[in-house]
Write a structure and sequence with these properties.
The protein is mainly alpha-helical. The chain is built from 6 helices and no strands. It has one domain. Helix 1 runs antiparallel to helix 4, helix 1 packs antiparallel against helix 6 and helix 5 packs antiparallel against helix 6.
Length: 144
Amino acid sequence: MNVRPQPKHGLSSWLLLACGVWLVGLGAYFIFLRPALLPEDPRFMGTSIDALRLAAPGLEHWLGKVFTVMGGFMAGAGVLVVFIARALMPLRPRGTATTLALAGLLTVTLMSATNFVLHSDFRWLLLAPALVWLAAVVSYLTKR
């Protein structure tokens, strides 16, 4: 029987694994639970939900579809992140750090930054995954 030794999962793998699981959960929230309009949405636009409903009667139904698609992409990205954290990071293939940094920048960091621009009620909560992702990249670069 030929058994290959399993690569060691370091701190960076576990941190990124947590980010991947979080992305899957966030995607599920967007697909199944997120209302089309949060109270902060009309507040940012300087209007009310009633005014939006009157001006665009199909807006909430359409946004529900948009958030379903967006949630699917989030969850799909999370599945890929979990795979990378478990299968690829311990092997340390070339380009991994750059790929992780770009993926984090384009996903959790952009989302966090946008929520700060919008003065979202969730901005501080959404900063956490970006910081965990950053810690995973730094940990990976320092070989932890």
